[in-house]
């Protein structure tokens, strides 16, 4: 799988005469996923923005239903724990980090995921 | 339930505090679709333990608590609902059964015309619901409820509808079908009527030069239509339409899924215009006699695990039109002085294939290959003017998508190749030519995740007639504050004007055709080059809990070179390259608001200032209103579970005065005033949805019966020197009423 992938890419790279783009050695495109608590679209945007701004994070996607954060990162440039810390710093608990109460309290009402009732709130996409 | 919720949110925004009870009745549906009261339903204030339950009649009453704003209603076997308690009596609240989840889509009602806040380009997305608002038999008619595009009738004879954007006619727009160039070259005038409205899933209208991916030709904008897809479309769709002028249309779609991953669709459209209509008694048909058969078979293949996606399309079209004098009989009168008449026969074959691959391990990386082949053959004569064109076209585009570092920096790059061969004959003079171009493009998209994002694209093309040139384009979006966007765009476009195919209406006149040689290699003319500059602002707000959109756009298009179409001498039509200035400034202000529950208004003001330096001096573009107003009202009754619904739609299009081409050299009876009067066109439609499968619609177009009194100059002597059907500023056809139904499974 990995090999076919790479040869595919090699082919494309040649096709497009692409110079200078180092397309993935495996550790440069490390795929990881972990749980992040949150409720809504607003949470999604907050979680994804915070992680994507970290150097080395290439791609993020947080699933509202499953609470799973999928990301692709360059292991040479950052560590998973740093990403988790960054997410906690904007108010969201992960499987390894917990957000400060102060930061958590500052979240909009509908994003206060620690309160089980908050899931019933109106999470209009328009926030 | 959102609908209901908005309903209850309606009038009261402030609340009286104190000991007030909030009451309501909770209802469900029994199996035979009757309303039944639900007893023992849990009613609880959100984020609290304060609650009650309903009695046998489904009624409840709960003391109002200022600190809580919303009530949660929950009942076993039903979906819970949360309602804002902003008035003492919440009235009837319907709960939906859980098991019906699959059948009922619970979603916020989105306006069928969406102006995006986040898209970097100025794109208006029109979904299929919008196409249900008017007869919309074909693509050209589907813009009549949409203010971004102006629909004009090109002349008094052919009945072809012209699309305009930013004050420029449709040849300056790039039409794509599923992102492949579609209405180009020979099909420019009639091509819009070759896409049946019911095949269209959505339309994206981009104002400004747009992306570089689809070529260099777009100057005013791009219009992409997405067709319905076998794997996501309904299994069966049937639609029939008839109007009071004996126009009949039938549309069918049938889709078959072999598995979740492979499906095919067979789509058929047929229309017939059989009515010999001459309401203005000028001996000429007000609307063509025509027939069309349009067939498409498409295949969709999808393998989400491996990341492959593919489409294969075959389309064949046969279209025949007869226009001209009512008594014209082609067999007897063709190329004679008996009667003036014309036939336009087109057959067209389209074959296209798309292949896309998304790297399963890298969701941001993909590549795609698109190829399309078309053969368009039009055989036609207009009186004694004979015009044949066969246009064969091959298009292919290879695209690679990926990121630089992170998805904050995306890029698309690729190569494209286009081949066009025109086998064209104008009054038996051969105008054959073949064009080919090879190009490479690179487009970079930046998103700072907060306020700023932009798309910068560049392409280099080598074209056998347009030489080698660079096409740069930039679109930028900046979020000034919450729910607002400021957009800028700048871009270049270049094209070869197909003067005959694009201006066929000139053949239905006694004008002589005059091309002023400029030693170019496109009919001796030089290519057209223009820059499009745009700035726009959009603000979305909630006023009284209803969404309100306001937007203002200004665009300026400046031609560096242009092929002017000069109608200013009533004896001739001249084509020549621009020597002075030519620009088009357009301003558009839009307001969308839901005035009361389910009543939406869309209002637009447009101001155009299009000036061209003709050889006879600088003039504003003829047959172009400086001011236009547009109002659309749409009302829908509340959609109840498993019940019918009414939908009503009314559109008023007001056009200000238009400058008319100079006719002062004609004898007095064949002169027109220097400008036309302002007028308005009113269209309306009423739809009755009987159930989720069947709906009937009744509509009227041009209800106020606004027509041009003398639509054709010299109609009494069509072989004389003053015959001219091109000076049309008002509709020819008076009020039209239609009836149709749609059935879907």
Record the SSE blueprint.
The complex is a heterodimer of chains A (127) and B (745).
Chain A: H1 2-15, E1 30-35, H2 41-52, E2 57-62, E3 68-73, H3 80-89, H4 101-105
Antiparallel strand pairs in A: 1-3, 2-3
Helix pairs in contact in A: 2-3
Chain B: H1 2-9, E1 21-29, E2 35-37, E3 42-45, E4 51-53, E5 59-63, E6 70-74, E7 81-84, E8 89-94, E9 113-115, E10 122-127, E11 150-153, E12 161-165, E13 168-169, E14 173-177, E15 180-181, E16 200-207, E17 221-227, E18 236-243, E19 247-257, E20 262-273, E21 289-303, E22 308-324, H2 330-333, E23 341-358, E24 366-382, E25 385-404, E26 406-426, E27 429-430, E28 433-447, E29 452-463, E30 467-478, E31 484-495, H3 499-502, E32 512-515, E33 528-543, E34 546-561, E35 563-566, E36 572-577, E37 582-596, E38 599-614, E39 617-620, E40 627-636, E41 645-655, E42 679-689, E43 694-701, E44 736-744
Parallel strand pairs in B: 1-8, 14-17, 32-36
Antiparallel strand pairs in B: 1-2, 1-5, 3-4, 3-6, 6-7, 9-10, 10-16, 11-12, 12-13, 14-15, 16-17, 18-19, 18-44, 19-20, 20-21, 21-22, 22-23, 23-24, 24-25, 25-26, 26-27, 26-28, 28-29, 29-30, 30-31, 31-33, 33-34, 34-37, 35-36, 37-38, 38-39, 38-40, 40-41, 41-42, 42-43, 43-44
Structure description:
The complex is a heterodimer of chains A (about 130) and B (about 750). In chain A, about 30% of the residues lie in helices and about 15% in strands. With about 130 residues, chain A is an alpha+beta fold. The radius of gyration of chain A is 18 Å and the shape is elongated. Chain B has about 750 residues and is an all-beta fold. In chain B, a hairpin with a 3-residue loop joins β29 (about 450-465) and β30. The radius of gyration of chain B is 28 Å and the shape is globular. The chains are: A alpha+beta (about 130), B mainly beta (about 750). Chains A and B meet through α1 and β2 of A and β25 and β26 of B.
């Amino acid at each position: 799988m990995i090999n076919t992938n790479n040869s595919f890419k090699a082919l494309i790279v040649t096709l497009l005469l692409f110079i200078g783009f180092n397309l993935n050695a495996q550790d440069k495109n490390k795929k990881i996923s972990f749980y992040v608590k949150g409720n809504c679209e607003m949470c999604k945007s907050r979680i994804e923005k915070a992680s994507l701004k970290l150097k080395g994070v290439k791609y993020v996607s947080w699933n509202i239903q499953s609470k799973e954060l999928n990301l692709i990162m360059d292991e040479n440039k950052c560590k998973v724990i740093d990403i988790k810390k960054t997410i906690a710093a904007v108010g969201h608990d992960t499987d390894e980090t917990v957000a400060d109460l102060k930061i958590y309290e500052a979240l909009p009402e509908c994003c206060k995921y620690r309160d089980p009732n908050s899931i019933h709130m109106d999470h209009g996409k328009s926030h | 339930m959102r609908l209901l919720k908005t309903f209850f949110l309606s009038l009261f925004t402030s609340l009286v505090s104190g000991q007030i009870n909030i009451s309501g009745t909770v209802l469900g549906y029994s199996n035979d679709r009757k309303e039944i009261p639900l007893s023992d339903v849990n009613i609880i204030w959100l984020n609290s333990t304060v609650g009650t339950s309903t009695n046998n009649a489904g009624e409840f009453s709960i003391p109002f608590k200022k600190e809580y704003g919303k009530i949660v209603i929950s009942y076993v076997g039903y979906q819970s609902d949360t309602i804002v308690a902003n008035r003492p009596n919440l009235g009837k609240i319907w709960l939906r059964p859980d098991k019906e989840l699959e059948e009922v889509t619970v979603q916020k009602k989105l306006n069928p015309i969406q102006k995006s806040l986040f898209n970097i380009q100025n794109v208006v997305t029109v979904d299929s619901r919008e196409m249900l608002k008017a007869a919309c038999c074909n693509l050209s008619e589907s813009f009549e409820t949409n203010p971004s595009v102006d629909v004009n009738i090109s002349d008094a004879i052919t009945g072809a509808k012209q699309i305009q954007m930013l004050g420029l006619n449709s040849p300056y727009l790039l039409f794509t079908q599923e992102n492949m160039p579609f209405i180009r070259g020979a099909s420019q005038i009639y091509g819009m009527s070759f896409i049946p409205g019911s095949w269209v899933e959505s339309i994206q209208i981009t104002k400004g030069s747009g992306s570089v991916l689809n070529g260099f030709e777009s100057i005013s904008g791009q219009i992409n239509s997405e067709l319905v897809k076998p794997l996501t479309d309904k299994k069966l769709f049937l639609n029939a339409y008839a109007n009071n002028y004996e126009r009949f249309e039938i549309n069918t779609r049938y889709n078959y899924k072999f598995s979740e991953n492979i499906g095919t669709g067979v789509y058929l459209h047929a229309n017939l215009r059989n009515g010999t209509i001459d309401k203005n008694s000028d001996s000429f048909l007000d609307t063509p006699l025509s027939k069309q058969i349009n067939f498409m078979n498409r295949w969709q293949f999808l393998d989400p695990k491996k990341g492959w996606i593919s489409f294969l399309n075959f389309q064949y079209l046969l279209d025949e039109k007869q226009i001209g004098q009512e008594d014209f009989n082609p067999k007897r009168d063709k190329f004679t002085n008996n009667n003036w008449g014309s036939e336009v026969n087109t057959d067209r074959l389209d074959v296209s294939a798309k292949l896309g691959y998304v790297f399963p391990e890298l969701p941001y990386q993909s590549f795609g290959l698109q190829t399309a082949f078309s053969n368009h053959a039009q055989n036609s004569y207009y009186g004694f003017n004979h015009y044949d064109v066969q246009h064969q076209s091959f298009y292919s585009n290879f695209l690679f998508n990926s990121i630089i570092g992170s998805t904050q920096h995306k890029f698309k790059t690729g190569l494209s190749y286009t081949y066009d061969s025109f086998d064209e004959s104008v009054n038996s003079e051969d105008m054959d030519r073949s064009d080919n171009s090879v190009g490479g493009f690179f487009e970079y998209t930046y998103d700072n995740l907060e306020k700023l994002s932009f798309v910068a694209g560049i392409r280099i093309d080598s074209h056998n007639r347009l030489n080698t040139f660079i096409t740069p384009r930039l679109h930028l979006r900046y979020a000034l504050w919450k729910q607002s966007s400021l957009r800028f765009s700048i871009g270049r476009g270049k094209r070869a004007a197909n003067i005959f195919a694009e201006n066929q209406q000139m053949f239905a006149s006694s004008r002589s055709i005059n091309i002023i040689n400029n030693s170019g290699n496109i009919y001796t003319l030089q290519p057209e080059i223009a820059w499009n500059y745009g700035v726009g602002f959009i603000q979305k707000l909630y006023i009284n809990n209803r969404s309100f959109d306001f937007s203002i756009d200004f665009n300026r298009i400046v031609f560096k070179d242009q092929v002017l179409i000069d109608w200013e001498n009533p004896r001739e039509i001249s084509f020549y390259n621009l020597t002075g200035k030519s620009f088009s400034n357009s301003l558009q202000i839009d307001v969308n608001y839901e005035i009361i529950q389910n009543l939406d208004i869309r209002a637009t003001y447009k101001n155009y200032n299009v000036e061209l330096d003709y050889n006879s001096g600088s003039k504003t573009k003829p047959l172009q209103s400086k001011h236009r107003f547009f109002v659309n009202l749409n009302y829908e009754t509340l959609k109840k579970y498993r019940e019918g619904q009414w939908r009503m739609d009314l559109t008023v299009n007001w056009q200000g005065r238009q400058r008319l081409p100079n006719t002062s050299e004609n004898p007095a009876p064949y002169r027109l005033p220097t400008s036309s009067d302002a007028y308005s066109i009113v269209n309306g439609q009423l739809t009755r949805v009987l159930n989720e499968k069947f709906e009937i619609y009744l509509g009227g177009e041009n209800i106020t019966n606004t027509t041009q009194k003398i639509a054709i100059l010299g109609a009494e002597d069509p072989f004389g020197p003053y015959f001219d059907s091109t000076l049309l500023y008002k509709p020819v056809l008076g009020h039209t009423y239609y009836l149709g139904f749609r059935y879907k499974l």
